[in-house]
Design goal:
mainly alpha, 9 helices
Length: 193
Amino acid sequence: MARKREFDPDEVVEKAMHLFWEKGYSETSVRDLVDATGVAHAGLYAAFDDKEGLYAAALAKYQKLVSETLYAKLLSADAGLAAIREFFGFIKMASKAAPFRNGCMMANTSVEFGDGNDRLNKLVHANLKKLTSAFKNALANAQAGGDLSADRNIDDLAAGLAASFQGLSILARARAPQKIITGAVHAALAQLD
């Protein structure tokens, strides 16, 4: 008879997510994961197959977290330019403290893996699509409400805002001076003018 799992996989993924988000995949050892989660190596591998499996689960949890906390307002029926400005204002403020000063875990994954891992790349691309769609929703609402010129291409603008967010995330991860982050936020928002 198989032994009953003695840990909550969701709690393990949550702890692993924070560790990977802080240190990255390569700099996080299995020993680090055992220490952070309190689950033995064999238990982690039984539940997640390997370190990459746990990372993929952590990345999926991160995507759910950012969808619920960051993208939700952009996706609301009444989102507009104010929601986009609020989003970038939050990013500027949050880049000063953990966990967001670690950047975006999705952007970090892109930088660390490039296109060398199909499994993780699919998660990164799905997140980028959600982010771009969230911006597009707010921009479409702004156009419908007359706050954004009808001749602006919202597909291009949404892609530019998503790229700006990813770049800001990398600046935060690199601990760029706040003056640079503030300037980058202003440049991102200038796209709306």
